Amino acid sequence: MTERPVRFGPPLAASRPGRPAYGTDGLPLLGCAWNSDTHIVSGSRHREVSALRMRSAAGSLGAIFMCSSVFMQCAAAADKPVQSRPAEKQPAASRGIRQPTQPAKGPGSSDYPCGRVDKSLKGEGENGYWLFQPSDPVPKEAPVILFIHGTRAANPYDYGGWIEHLVRRCNIVIYPIFEPQSPWQEKREGNEIELRRALQATRTAIEYLKKSGDIKPRLDEFAITGHSFGGGLTGQVAALAKESGLPDPKAVMPVEPGWKGKEKMPFDVLAKVPASALVLIVEGDQDQFADSRKGPEMLEAMTGVPANHKAFVRLISDSHGDKPLVSDHAAPLAPDPTYGAPLTPKNLRRRRLAAALTGMRDGETDALDYLGYWKLFDELCTTAFSGGTIDQVVGTGSTLEIGKWSDGREIAPAKVMRKP
Known about the structure:
The chain is an alpha/beta fold. The protein has helices at residues 57-78, 160-168, 183-189, 191-211, 229-240, 295-301, 345-358, 367-385, 391-394; strands at residues 19-20, 33-34, 38-42, 45-49, 116-122, 129-135, 141-148, 172-176, 216-227, 251-255, 278-284, 310-315, 399-400, 414-417.
C-alpha cells in the first residue's frame, strides 16, 4: 500500500529569508523567518502586509483591521492547550500498531553507565553557557560535546531529552547561550556576533573544565551537533575551531541546518573543516522550512573532508502506526521540564500563540529520536573517536534501516547521500 506523506499544520513561507519569527525559549519554532514585511499566517492562508506599501489611509485601516482580526483569532486559540502532535484519524488496520521502544543496548539505547546529570548555568546573559556533566558515578574523564541550539532556544528545555541521553552516556555537554534576549539587539548584531559568542562561551567552558572541573575533559574526543540555526553554526564552529583555540572536532552533525535573517551562510569557510572529522548532515522529509535548509550545500562546501568521512541522511516520515513518525522541523526536539528555566505562564501563552499562527507543533521523544538522531550521533561519535569512516555509521547503500513497527513492518528507511 502506498503511504501518503504526512503533513501537519498549514503550509509555511519557508523559502522567504528574514528575521526569526519566534523560538523555543517560550516559542516552539526554530528557524522560521519573517521578512521586514509582516507575514501573518491564519489557517492555511498567508497574508502579507507591508507598512511601506500602504499608500492610503484606507489601505492602512484595512491592513490594521485584517491584522486585528487574525490576532484575535490566534489569541483565542492561544487560550487552548497545544497538542504535541495534532490528532490524525488512523485507518482501522493501523490501530494497535506501536512504535518501537528505545533499545536496551547499543547506540541510541537506554544502556546508561551514568545515572544522573549535574546541571549548572555559568556566565551572564548571552555570554553564558549551560554545563551538563555526568554523575552517579562521576567518571574520571569524559568526551566533550558542544550542543548548539536553534533560534530562540537558549533555554535547553526543548532539547532536554537528547542532552539527558548524551550525558548519561558519560559525555560532558556544553550548551552556549550566545543569543540575546532582545530581538532588537539580535537584529542589530547579526549572525556573526552570535557565532563569535558561541565560540567564546565554548572556550570559556573548556578552560573551566580544565582548571576547575571534577571531570577531566577528553579534548581529543570533541564532537559538535546543533539544530536549525544551530545546525548552520555547527559547520561554522567546526571550521573555525582550531583558529579559535578549540580542539579539532572529531564528529560533526548539523541537524536541519539553516541561517537566520537575510544574511547568506558563509559557505567558503566550510573548506576549513578538518579532514580528520567525520561529518553527518541530517534533515527530515517533512521539514516545514525545507526550502531554506542548507544541508547538501554545506556537505559540498566541506572540500577538505574526504568522501569517506562525510554523508547526508534524510529521515523519512511514516504514518503506519497509531502514532505517526513525522520527520519535520520539530522532530529533533525532546522537551524535558527538568532542563533549563521553568516555563512561565507568559512563555506558555507565547507558545500557544505561535502554534496558532503557524501550525508548528512541540516536539516529543519518540522512535525518530532514539533510532534516528540519537542513534546516528552516538554511532558517529563512537566511530570518529576510534578513527573509523562514515560507512561504519550509515552503511554502504543508499538507504538506512531505522527499525520496525510492533506488527513487524519496517519503518520507512532513511535515505543516504554521499555526494550532493
